[in-house]
Amino acid sequence: MGSSTSVAAGRRRHKARDRLLLRWHRWLGLLALVFLLLAALSGCLLTYKQALIRAIITPGITLPATYGVAQMAPQLEVIAGRIQGDSSGYLIKAPNSEEPYWTLTRDADRQVQLLAWDSLQPHQQNLWLLQALSFIRELHTELFAGVVGEAILLVSGLLGLFLALSGLVIWWATKRSFRWRWVLPRQFNRSYLMHYHRHSGALMLPILLVILLTGSIMLWQKLTQPLLTPPPPTQLPRAMASAASASAGEWLAFAQQQVPDGWPTYIRLPAPGVAAVTVRYRLPGEWHPNGRTSVKIDLPDGSLTLSARADEVDWPQRLINQNYPLHSGYGMHGGYKLVVLIGGITLFWLSLTGGWSFIRRHH
């Protein structure tokens, strides 16, 4: 008799806990609903940003296998001559196999220009896409609200992690009722909204956790402080003679000597208030599409600073360095990029069905 009473009491406590968790899940989900919808939709559109640019703006353009720093250096000199005198600095991205064009981003207004890798003439076809992608990116990363928008997205990402884990706990009691028709319904029925919601979320939980966690970590590091302090850069004993009078091509060639196995990605040339040249590199086999290794040449003394190589840092720092490719799919295998897209669609679907179900329940 006592044993039966104890079991019954335990079941009541278990049901009360589940009801409380469900209540928190619903109300916190409602709080984050709009922001998760926006982040998921914009993220899906950005997943294939590079492919869209290649298909619509630079169709049929490929980078020759023989193209390298020897060809980049004189082209960089031409680009430097064009932007010289502009009061705003530029972030210059060198061509690579996935982006066979020079990319110039103006600091003042974030205006983007694509230059042909061979002639350095601006690509003029379908430039509306660049404006659309810039709009979507700003929505995805800061909700057009700067730091405030980033903070909202960080809170929404953390809430999304709670929703994903609490949703699994809630679903677990009904796991035996899992059917593929709840995940891929042949015919949509509003009566089954919660079935679609719970079973889709449970199935896609791993990739949802990766997307939400990596996005939250990147925002956290940007808004507060890095989870791990990166290794300090190394001041190399070698300096570049006459660095102040050197050309952009000579700066690039000298920087390349410090990372001979790297591919130049982002390049910062001297600008008003910035008396230095910085070249960022992607190392062989590195997931991050822009790399995490950089060389800085200070002007006018030519002193050289090399960041810790991405392939030589400790494993925790390497893991932190993979946040961006794991979150976006950039630089990753095409199969993983497809999984990221499906994860974004699922996050949008879960937000939509969860919000819709809540509204139907309370009206």
Automatic annotation (TrEMBL):
<keyword id="KW-0812">Transmembrane</keyword>
<feature type="transmembrane region" description="Helical">
    <location>
        <begin position="338"/>
        <end position="359"/>
    </location>
</feature>
<keyword id="KW-1133">Transmembrane helix</keyword>
<feature type="transmembrane region" description="Helical">
    <location>
        <begin position="200"/>
        <end position="220"/>
    </location>
</feature>
<keyword id="KW-0472">Membrane</keyword>
<protein>
    <submittedName>
        <fullName>PepSY-associated TM helix domain-containing protein</fullName>
    </submittedName>
</protein>
<dbReference type="InterPro" id="IPR005625">
    <property type="entry name" value="PepSY-ass_TM"/>
</dbReference>
<dbReference type="Pfam" id="PF03929">
    <property type="entry name" value="PepSY_TM"/>
</dbReference>
<feature type="transmembrane region" description="Helical">
    <location>
        <begin position="151"/>
        <end position="173"/>
    </location>
</feature>
